[in-house]
Write a structure and sequence with these properties.
It is a single chain. The protein is an alpha+beta fold and about 220 residues long. The protein has 6 helices and 7 strands; from the N terminus they run H-H-E-E-E-E-E-E-E-H-H-H-H. A hairpin with a 4-residue loop joins strand 1 and strand 2. The protein is globular. About 20% of the residues are buried.
C-alpha cells in the first residue's frame, strides 16, 4: 500500500517543526493527482549544526536539496516510471560555494556499454559537470545497486544521512511518520529485496537460519 497525500502533508509538518525545511511547499504541492505524478523540486533541508565529520572543505552549514520525479503505476513489481531522483549538497564559506551530488537512476535498458543495475546510485552527474573540480576525477561509475525511493523514502534518506541520530530517532518514533515509511518500504523495497533473495533460495528461504546477522545491520532504517 502506498502513502496518501495526507501522510506527505504530515511529514512536511514535522520537517517544519524541527526547522529542517523552512519551505515545504515543494513537498506539499508536489503531487498531480490527475496524472499520478510526483514532482518535488528543490526541497531544501538546512543543516546548521553537527555537520558530518571530515566534511572538506569546512563549511558552517549545509543545504541539502532533494529533487524527485516519478509517475505512479499499478505494476506491483516496480510501481513507478519516468523516474528521476537527485540529492544535491551545497556548502558555503569565505572561499566560495561548494557542491556535491548523488543521483539514483532507473535504467532498464539492457543495451549498455557498461553494467547498469536497473536501480543504481552514483556520485556526480550533471550537477557537477560545470564545477571547478581541482584534483577530483569525476566519473559516472561505480553504479551501486540501491532500491528505489519514492518521496517518503527520499525524505527519510536525507534525514538518516544528514541529521544527528538522536534527532532522526525522535522523528522515526512518531507513529504517523513510521507508518508512512513502512508503507513505502513495503511498496518499493520489499519486491526489490525479495527478488535478490529469490535468486539464491527460490521459495525455500525459510530453511535458512540467520543467527548473527539481521536486515537492520545492512539497512538500519527498516521499519518493523
Amino acid at each position: 500500500m502506498g502513502n496518501s497525500v495526507a501522510s506527505i502533508q504530515y511529514i512536511a509538518s514535522i520537517l517544519k517543526k524541527k526547522k529542517l525545511c523552512l519551505d515545504t511547499s515543494p513537498l506539499t504541492n508536489g503531487y498531480n493527482k490527475a496524472e499520478r505524478v510526483w514532482n518535488v523540486a528543490k526541497l531544501k533541508f538546512t543543516i546548521k549544526d553537527n555537520i558530518p565529520r571530515n566534511t572538506t572543505p569546512l563549511v558552517p552549514s549545509l543545504d541539502v536539496l532533494l529533487d524527485v520525479f516519478y509517475k505512479e503505476t499499478d505494476n506491483t513489481d516496480i510501481p513507478l516510471s519516468q523516474y528521476n531522483f537527485r540529492v544535491t549538497v551545497e556548502g558555503k564559506n569565505q572561499n566560495g560555494l561548494f557542491k556535491s551530488s548523488w543521483h539514483l537512476d532507473y535504467d532498464n535498458n539492457n543495451v549498455q556499454d557498461f553494467i547498469h543495475p536497473h536501480f543504481h546510485i552514483t556520485w556526480g552527474g550533471n550537477k557537477m559537470k560545470d564545477l571547478n573540480l581541482g584534483e577530483v576525477l569525476l566519473l559516472p561509475t561505480p553504479r551501486f545497486s540501491y532500491p528505489p525511493m519514492d518521496i517518503v523514502l527520499g525524505v527519510d534518506f536525507i534525514l538518516s544521512n544528514f541529521v544527528k541520530v538522536d534527532i532522526y530517532k525522535q522523528i522515526q518514533s512518531d507513529s504517523q511518520y513510521k507508518a508512512a515509511v513502512k508503507n513505502a518500504q513495503e511498496k518499493y523495497w520489499k519486491p526489490y529485496i525479495l527478488s535478490l533473495a529469490h535468486h539464491w533460495c527460490g521459495n525455500s528461504c525459510q530453511k535458512i537460519q540467520l543467527t548473527n546477522i539481521k536486515a537492520k545491520h545492512f539497512h538500519p532504517t527498516l521499519i518493523d
